[in-house]
Design brief:
Alpha-Beta Plaits; 298 residues; two-stranded antiparallel sheet; ten-stranded mixed beta sheet; single chain
Length: 298
């Protein structure tokens, strides 16, 4: 018998394997300014403004999630969204995720502009995540089993206390290189050409989409990547109606080379979802979001 549930979790050797991933990093621009100006001691008025920005971003994100296909972490002024490829059995599920991400980005920037704030930037990168250990350790896991009425059962502590997470290592973000690359690129920012309230797509995303399309048995001939006057067109064509499972109009290639990462990044100009005729409809991530509703301010 194990002394604690934590001992049991530690003893269960996780089979090491990798899973493809696409991860986004979105964060609010100019967020540190009130902290820096106040030497990291903002007044109550500033704290209310800070809380309003954070609350609005989180509410908008929650209203634009694809709950079956993703996991999300909110940390300070950043939101990370990870697409779970274990649940993907059709390329259009990825298209749905991208549309929800773009609508989230548009809605936050619309809210920010209305309230006189700088806005938000989003970076999307592909990679793999390396599953290596247990997801979490809860307070109940630290209770010695010999103190319980049933050593194999639960303790007599209130459930809220038993369920409290003490250590968190969510599987969706365990050694997630898509997460790492999107974080690095966002941190490089305008000095490396990732300017303003835009969405940037790393080349690893296109590579991941190609591999996924092949895996899901979509004909290679239906994947289009070509140069245009704007930059790059990338799409996966639905042969049944010649619409796109998804499509991107991307800006000119932006070469990024730093000590931590060398890659090519593209500014997202337009997105074509799976359920609209691309001849008639495309989403402009720089446009105002027309369906913005946020509860009363703090």
């Amino acid at each position: 018998m194990f002394y604690t549930n934590l001992d049991k979790k530690i003893s269960e050797i996780q089979e090491v394997h990798t899973i493809p991933t696409i991860c986004s990093w979105s964060d609010l621009l100019g967020f540190a300014e009130p902290y820096v100006k106040s030497n990291w001691e903002p007044c109550e008025t500033e704290y209310r403004k800070i809380a309003e920005r954070l609350r609005s971003m989180q509410i908008i994100c929650a209203r634009n999630l694809v709950a079956m296909e993703e996991n999300v972490i909110v940390s300070n002024d950043a939101i990370m969204r990870n697409l779970n490829f274990e649940n993907i059995n059709h390329i259009e599920l990825i298209s749905r995720w991208f549309r929800s991400l773009i609508y989230f980005h548009m809605a936050v920037n619309t809210w920010e502009k209305r309230h006189g704030y700088p806005g938000m930037r989003t970076v999307v990168a592909g990679g793999e995540r390396l599953l290596h250990s247990f997801d979490d350790a809860r307070f109940e896991d630290f209770i010695f089993n010999y103190t319980k009425k049933d050593p194999e059962g639960e303790s007599s502590l209130p459930q809220e206390m038993r369920d409290r997470i003490v250590m968190y290592s969510p599987a969706a973000f365990q050694m997630n290189t898509g997460f790492s690359k999107s974080y690095i690129l966002d941190g490089l920012g305008s000095k490396y050409g990732l300017e303003g309230t835009n969405i940037y797509i790393d080349q690893s995303v296109l590579k991941c989409l190609k591999h996924t399309a092949y895996f899901l048995r979509i004909e290679q001939s239906q994947i289009i990547q070509k140069e245009t006057d704007m930059g790059i067109h990338f799409s996966i064509v639905n042969p049944e109606n010649h619409w796109f499972h998804m499509g991107f109009e991307l800006g000119k290639p932006l070469q990024v080379s730093s000590k931590r990462l060398s890659t090519t990044v593209y500014k997202l100009l337009y997105f074509y979802p799976w359920d609209e005729d691309p001849k008639d409809f495309r989403i402009d991530p720089a446009a105002d979001f027309p369906y913005l509703t946020i509860p009363v301010s703090i």
